[in-house]
Amino acid sequence: MRGEESSDSESSRMEESSVRRSLETLCQELNMDEQTATEAMDNFTAIWNTYTLEGDVVHWLACSLYSACRKGSTPTVGKGLMEGNCVSLTRILRSSKLR
């Protein structure tokens, strides 16, 4: 995930797999749609490959999920659109155990 040497490719694949599992678990708990989850993973991967992220990876995944949730829109009864996909920040924070 980090663009390391080929000798570290197996450990980076294991790390990426662990991150994906963490995101899948978080998304299942939040009943997140697949498109938002995919966008969150893409955003997280781009940041992960560019910067050094300190702390719990799940907390960074939660930030990425929140960002992806805000980019979507949900149709309303009055033929309008509501910004976001109706997953609240509070639920994301609770699910990721970010205090």
From TrEMBL:
* Any GO molecular function: RNA polymerase II transcription regulatory region sequence-specific DNA binding
GO CC annotation, single? transcription regulator complex
GO terms classed as biological process = cell differentiation; negative regulation of G1/S transition of mitotic cell cycle; regulation of transcription by RNA polymerase II
Region annotation Disordered: where it falls in the sequence: 1-21
Name the domain of life.
Eukaryota
Q: What is this protein called?
A: Retinoblastoma-like protein 1
Quote the gene name from the UniProt entry. Answer: LOC102208773
